[in-house]
Amino acid sequence: MKGRGTRRTRGGTSAAANRRSILAFTEGRKTEPSYLLHWYRLFRDRAIVVIDDFHGGPLQLVEKARDRRENDLRDQRRGRGQAFSEYWCVFDVDEHHGLDQAIDLATKNEIRLAVSNPCIELWFALHFQDQWASLDRTKAQDIAKTLLSCGKTPTAQALEQLVARHDEAEARARALDKKHDGDGSPVRSNPSSDVWRLVAQIRTPDGGVGAGNRPR
Description:
By secondary structure, the protein is an alpha/beta fold.
């Protein structure tokens, strides 16, 4: 099974052909898929979102996304199907090795990234509060658990809160990027998240400012 959520389009002139189609590879098996598919259900008239069944570390995800994209484009050229509009990898910085290699490979192969440092729970926390100081994974998870009143898999109520507060979270994430840029910190320094870029591709008809990878 190549993915879940919906099948990719196969020719024709259906409404699906006019929507942006996104194939996402996520590190987590529950948290990220639950969150992204909730956005998809809300905006299925604007985008098709499929979560691939493969899960792994950053480099593994990017390699899988690269291979899938190449295969899909080859099939499309041969008239055997239609490639997705965009291929995304969603993962945490955490303590992964080969992170720079994964980012470089993604850039070279037009794979888009939604990265959180230290983890996606930091992104969830930004929906409720500022977070200027660096923090580790455990701390970020504890904060998110308290704020959302749930564990690793967001509940229906938690998902509703995340959608309602999304614009606040995006503003805080952008402010963090501006802070890191201002003090000379590397891109995607702790704390930071650009998950909002992928959300923009799902909920905005033209993709808005979500398009493309962030610069390294």
